[in-house]
# Entry
Amino acid sequence: MNTLFLGYGNPDRQDDGVAWHVLRGLTLELGLTPPETWEDEFPSAPGLAFRFELQLTPEMAEDIRAFERVCFVDAHTGRIPAEVQFTPLEPGFQTSPFTHHLTPEMLLNMCQSLYGAAPEGVLLSIRGYHFGFETTLSEQTARLLPEAIKRANGWAGKQDPISQRR
# Structure
């Protein structure tokens, strides 16, 4: 497989789980049967794999090395200017005040350091508005799903997601 969509977040914390909804919508658009719950595995398609996790972990460096491209999908809280944004990533070390926080750039850096190469990486970030103890998305974040899915689908088909707009 050459492309991995790797979504992460907590689906029990409302908009923090938006990545699962994006991956689910993307698999539906591709004519695949998506999982019913976030704990179930996603199907794959020719050249495409989908994976959802609660958080990024160092062990994933070995997993992502099998891919040419990885699209990390996550929620953001407003520090990114656009509500739906694609950002190209470069492997790099970053410090974090949290002991259990691993960024996509750090994961790409681990892959490159350990295995001599890292896949092309991008981050698809969707604005989250509410992070309460609920399993449904807020209305504000739910309305962003069609754009996020469209841009992810375009990236899967090698369209430039940074220049894609509504």
Q: What stands out?
A: Residues 161-166 have pLDDT under 50 and may be disordered. The first strand starts at residue 3 and ends at 8. The beta strands are 3-8, 48-53, 69-76, 84-89, 120-127. The helical segments are 18-29, 60-64, 104-115, 139-142, 145-156.
